[in-house]
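Weekly structure sync, notes
Attendees: PL, DS, HV (note-taker this week)

Item 1: Guanylate cyclase domain-containing protein
DS walked through the input record. Source organism listed as Luedemannella flava. Sequence as pasted into the shared doc:
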Amino acid sequence: MPARPDLPSGLVTFLFTDIEGSTRLAQLLGADYRPVLAEHRRILRHAFGAEGGVELFTEGDSLFVVFADASAALRACAEAQRALAAHDWKPLRPKVRMGLHSGYAEPHGGEYASPEVHRAARVAAAAHGNQVLCSSATARLVAGSDLGLIDLGLYQLRGFDGQERLLQLTAPGLELDFPRPRTQAATPHNLPTPSSTFVGRAQEQAELRGLLRGHRLVNLVGTGGAGKTRLALELAKEMVPAFADGVWFVDLATVGDAHLVPVAVAEAVGVRPEPGRPVLDTLAEYAATRSIMLVLDTCEAHLPAVGAVATRLLAAGTGVQVLATSREPLAVPGELVWRIPPLGTAGAEGTPDAVALLLERAAAARGGRLARTDELTHLHRVAQRLDGLPLALELAAARLRLLSAGQLADRLDDMLATLDAVALPGAVDDVAGVGDTPGVRANRHATLRATFDWSYRTLPGPAAALLRQLAVFASPMDLGTVEWIAGPEALPLLTILVDKSLMVTDPQAASGLPTYRLLDPIRAFALRELAGDGQEAAARDKHLGWVQHALGRVRTGSDGRPRTLSTYPFDALAAEARAALHWCVQEGRCRDGLRVAVALGEWWRERGLAREGRIWLYRLFERSVTAGEEIPDGELAVAYHGYARYAGLDGQPGEQLRLLVQAEEFAWRTGKASLIARASASRGEALVALGREDEAERACRDVLDWARARHADAEALPATFTLAHLLWRRGALAEAATELGQARGAANADPTERANRTIDLMLGLVALSRSDLVAAHDHLVVALRSRMTHGFHGGVCEALSAMAVRCALGGELATAAKLFGAAQGARAQLRTSTDMLGRFGLRHEGAVRTAMGDAAFDAAYGEGAAMTLAEATTVALAVDHPDLLHQLDRLAAVDLEATAELPVARRLAS
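Item 1 (cont.): predicted structure, written out as tokens:
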């Protein structure tokens, strides 16, 4: 072999050989070892020289040879092993191991100073006697030749950080079976080990396992701190056995330049870049025959570059699968976008995931001390306020080192100030919460502000402005709402916010149409940005305008005309209305606030929220005086009238009467008959509550006469109802029925149809007092169905009580007891004691108890009290319509003797 010609440069292949167990062999052979060593060198030099190998040095039993051609190097090794095997060794054959690695190197002073030389030496050290190993770099250079190579997998070479793929040369005359290489087998993954336990997400994991079976590119998308990385790591850990060539985690947040994304992927997988060739080409060639999963984390850091890499590798081979995490979709073919939900904050059974995370992390923050039982309610409040966002929960748990759970929950109105006071060192987006990778990721997830700012800074100006504007909304929005706010650009801007995971889409909204919302921690961030931008007042006023628009739509149809009023839409608008009222009380216009409060009047009354309505009106009146804001008399009349009604429902009839007098004064200043009639028509109701029934009757008759003379009958209907109620109570049934019959005309003129239902209820009471069950049933069913259909829950309670009396008179005692219980249970939930039936209802309830016996009555009553209003209404409407003759037969057949002389049926009828 040439002594030292010009050494090859550029892409060269290094070969190291030595004798396995040479020291022991020398001890065994003694003086005979030297000729064995010399003969072994002769054979090797001949084989290597024949293929152009250049020997750099010989040391003991080791040779170091360099080749310009990788194929020639492998052929030389095969020939050398065959020659060694064919030689007649006496007394023992030396077992020679060989290792090759290829890379770029330049000779200096007759030698190579390159890490590629050391890598070749480590490959040789991994071989067994008679075995030839090479690196993947050498294997790629001989691809397509007739040389046979067996892939042994990835191994950790001593002194090198990454993993090296080792391959064994196969050729005729060479041994095939060897133990695994002499180095630690590389773990078939590089998944980081989190320092904290994984909490919850069992349902999400099950769903994702199924998706990964059917899709090769699954992207876990969600806002910062949502726990995407940690969930991906949990899934990837389970998938390791399914991928023969490993599961490899790539942290793209640490990649400073988009051009380095393929390099980062290659480093994670263990593929070494080839000079003069794009890394992505090398990766694709490597992936073509592999079974690997790539976990590409934080893809939003370099979205287009990551999309290109993922697309290329998925196209290279069917054994490649990609599990990505990102704040927005990659937008590449074949991508399945799976949006990670917040941790659950409520559940019928067990501890919700968000609360479980808080409990686990709080215990760690407190040195292992578990939360006290009395803290659980507050921890549930914290989890709900933080919308189950894992990073926010982690920060909250850290705060529990200093605060009790109750103190923390009470301070979340200023969420960022409370939570960001405790930064999580080394925090990342990898938890059911967070984890411990330093660097850029740590800064990005140390605080809520930093987490959301990462995404916020990438928004176009109009999208950022829309995010700030929508932050003033307290509840989910539909597309129509966003369009009302943003105009024609609403859809593209909303798409940006949803894609960047700054807004959450709920496709399963009750309306059947998707809704959009900001998680509370993101809302807190956006509100702070809004305040800093100096546009909060304008945003709040615009929101207030939308609230007034939405409340107006509840009362009008698509043609703009009034329609039958339902209180159910107010349920969905309540949070927004309260936010608007809060703004009006603080800095907005009181006049607008009064309009909102008045529009909510029926809803507050029918949901048992009269006291809340009073509080809002009081605060608005107070601020209007302080601010010196002028409110027109007509609007004050309407507002004071509503204020008075709330006082009455709140059990303060004296206050109700005082406020009604003020409302009438404002109404008279306007000179509008309809407004005067409306303000005056409720005086009788207050007087009745004060026990001044004669005065109440005169007041009702006076206002009715005055209103009818001025064609304001519809506005005076409350006076008709109070008068009819008084007449019914004292047994003037005919006159009560006459008054109610006359009211039909005025009620029919009201397109909202509200008054007709009250007329039906009261006519039903008149019929009950007459023991006319057929007429009573007809009227009460109409009243009950309409009130439940349109959400007048306070009125439903009265109708249920009346239906209970109807069932009692019909001999259906168990049903009567249930309905009495249901009515009372609903009143308790609505926090109202108002009952139109009064002593009439109590008398019949007592008679049913007497007839059934305490035990049976209490059981049925309790069953009814446990029902929802909807369930109780279903029971009431299922009562058979009475046929008069059959009804009389039933009454005659029922033996209902009470302690009094008259049968119960006759007593009830009286």
